[in-house]
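Students often ask why we bother encoding 3D structure as a string. The short answer is that it lets us treat folding as translation between two languages. Here is a chain of 260 residues written in the first language.
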Amino acid sequence: MDRSGPVGFFDSGLGGISVLRETVRLLPQEDYLYFGDSLHAPYGVKAPEEVVELCASAVEHLLSQGAKAIVLACNTATSVAAAALRQRYPNLILIGTEPALKPAVERHPGGRILVMATAMTLKERKFFDLWNQFRDQAEIIPVPCSGLMEFVEQGILRGEQVEQYLMERLTPFMKVPVDAVVLGCTHYPFLRGVIRKLVGRRTEILDGADGVARQLCRRLEEENLLSCRTEQGTVTFQNSLDGPEILELSEKLLHYQDET
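And here it is in the second language, the structure alphabet:
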């Protein structure tokens, strides 16, 4: 692999940009190539076999453009396809994502923790193993949020529509104090401000973006693939919809301030 090549990012849509922006902060000297498969989003309602093939196609697309590492910036895709992709590409640096349940439990032992994610993520073996690992250390409550990522895909990040959706999902669990909310889909950090409004200031909201960025940094360093330059790198967006509107929204999300 060429250390001057870009780091590839892939998500079923635009959610992975929440992970990308954290990575750009940590490694600003790198070039980044982000591919969003908005044409086929959401992945959470598709058969696992279809998800694997869509992810493999995206990986091939990024590798064909010289990607030196790939971040699978989608919890559903990671849960369903990461193992198969690592078998297909054994020499590739492939970083996946998972709900930030471990840090939530470590910060709130014995606490009450909500995990917001797509229905598929919550049904996958990967999440069950994660939940099983920590279930004796905290009260962990899965909250299926199918349909929530579509708000981000449409650029609806605030307002009555998304507030009403979240109120219906979260209010039943807020009658008893909640210590933490884990955002188990990479789209959800863009809705952090609305979620904060509903859960209050005392509830910590966590996502896994920082951990993914740090793991990528470690792996690039191990393989001697970190960029040597000192100037700011570039970010290039591509999308399976291939329209100016989706690319403009991608740029907007990269710089979006989701919670004040």
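Translate back mentally: The longest strand covers residues 112-117. Keep this in mind for the problem set.
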